[in-house]
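Ex. 9. Protein: FAS1 domain-containing protein.
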Amino acid sequence: MQLRSVTTVTLLSISLLFIFTPNAHAHNITRLLADHPEFSTFNHYLSLTHLAGEINSRTTITVCAVDNAAMSDLLSTHPSIYTVKNILSLHVLLDYFGAKKLHQITNGTALAATMFQATGSAPGSSGFVNITDLKGGKVGFSPEDNNNQINTYFVKSVKEIPYNLSVIQISKVLPSDVAAAPAPGPAETNITAVMSAHGCKVFADTLIADVDAEKTFESNAEGGLTVFCPGDDAFKAFLPKYKNLTAARKTALLEYHGVPVYQSLAMLKSNNGDMNTLATDGASKFDFTVQNDGMDVTLKTKVVTAKITGTLIDEQPIAIYTIDKVLLPKELFKAQAETPAPAPAPDVTADSPKPSTKKSKKAPSPSDEADTPSPADDAADQVADQNAAVRFDGARFGSLIVCVWWIVKTMLFF
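Predicted structure tokens for FAS1 domain-containing protein:
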């Protein structure tokens, strides 16, 4: 009987461990480095160059951080932001190197690919870094195009999540003439032309007709812009309601479909949470929530939930995605009552983008119109979605039920 009880407890413990062990470990490099002020400049430029999002989207990565003094030396030459990105991407190794591994390198040397190599901007093997375990406990780093000269060394381990993320400090910026070469900025992109040619002509034409909204999109394009354009069928169906809006509301609705930072699809998937838009202005939030639903990315307002259906362009600093519905902000439309979820997940909020670079203006109030449109056909979209970062796993819950039933049956009949 005692053996049977021990077996029962063991099986139950294994089941619970199986159910509640997370599928993958998520990390946020900017939040991690925020606890280390000596890397504040390095951290700032990871965000400014959008490398942070790319780092967060990877499951196996090593970040070679440099302190503020080293970054000051780099910035003293006044490189463009695109050159800084190339240099810093050379400091992101696409493999896990914790302190222990660095001192136990097979044959004393290893060649690591970097994010600079992965971008395709590095000719030949210039995007690789040699790591050498030297005598006296030192570990040296040298880019492939540095003629095997080692003058950068391992200082300390900052943070290790075994086999997923390692953040280490190295003594100085890795010298690479290729990475430090002047990098051209992206060619100017005609946003409305791209949308018109790829199934979003109605939205693009409507944007062109609104001078204020078009100017807001254009003024944010150089610094970073993400656009979510509704497909032609979706926006055509919405046009009767759009025509009933005041001029200020029309502008706000169009600007609500733009985000004033560049967001790749990988970044959207790894940064679930609330996101500001071009319409955000002081007390007028005009935000929506980005959520994952399996492989899909959804944009949820209090009125409607839209899904990203395609990518028209994803080239820093601009990304344009197609969506299956018009985004309706709660500031302009009546919010639908949300169906309470049986077990709501904790609220996970992403770092919101900065407000758009536009002149402050009075936000359209509900009193601007006597009859505020309230689309009834989108009520089905209001069922609360579980946030992808804390998603309920039905298969594992089913396994728990079956296991508990088997254990109870065993205890009752034996």
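Check your answer against this statement. The two ends are 9 Å apart (CA to CA).
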